[in-house]
Amino acid sequence: MNATTLLRNDHQAVDRLFTQFAETSPDDTSYRRLIFRLIKSELEAHSRVEEEVFYPAVMRLRSAQARETVRAALEDHQALDGLLAEIDQMEPDDPQYGARLAALRQSVERHVLAEEGALFSEARIHLTDERLEALGRQMELRRKEHAVGGAGELESVGAPASAGGAGAAPDRTPVRVR
Ligand SMILES: [Fe+2]
Ligand SMILES: [Fe+2]
To answer: What pLDDT, in 10s, does the model give residues 101-115?
Structure first.
């Protein structure tokens, strides 16, 4: 699958989860936490494959604009990781829980707009269809590996907030952008 199609599908899947969350009642705390955990694991897996495969490919393009958009996107990822960690520490019956989720959704939407705009157009201008297909396949593979690693995290829904994060940490590969 073309890399940009794959990433856009991921964006839409996360957006559907946010909609699902928005439709919950604040009293439905365990369901709310479950949806949040899904959003968190989806977003984290998505960001990691972008950082491991897609961003380095765009970073290597002979385009200052491309490198600048990747740098900005990496900053977004850091901010999103921070928000995810912060919400993960909250109790779902916290009166601010819904508001923090709404803030997270806004930040994700802004980031997605920037990716699908500037970043994707740089990729489409400078990369061939074959290259985009190859990057898509690479990301699908990495995504499956992350999904295997993250399966325990979903099973631990309801466990102390730190459990999933601690288990996920060793899987993180540093961004290989230069
Ligand atoms: Fe993305
Ligand atoms: Fe991203």
So the answer is: 999 999 999 999 999
**DSSP-assigned letter for residue 51:** I
Ligand nearest to the CA of 14: 1
Residue 165 CA to ligand 2 center (angstroms) comes to: 19
In a domain, 116, yes or no: yes
Cβ burial of 121 (10 Å; 0-12, 13-18, 19+) is middle
Number of domains composing the chain = 1
Spacing, Cα 27 to ligand 1 middle (Å): 31
Distance (angstroms) between ligand 2 centre and the Cα of 81 equals 11
pLDDT for res 50:
97
Ligand 1 mean position, distance from CA 50 (Å): 7
Of 14, 40, 47, whose CA–CA distance to 153 is shortest? 40
DSSP E strands, 6-165: none
CATH of the domain at 76: 1.20.120.520
Distance separating alpha carbons of residues 8 and 58, to the nearest angstrom: 16
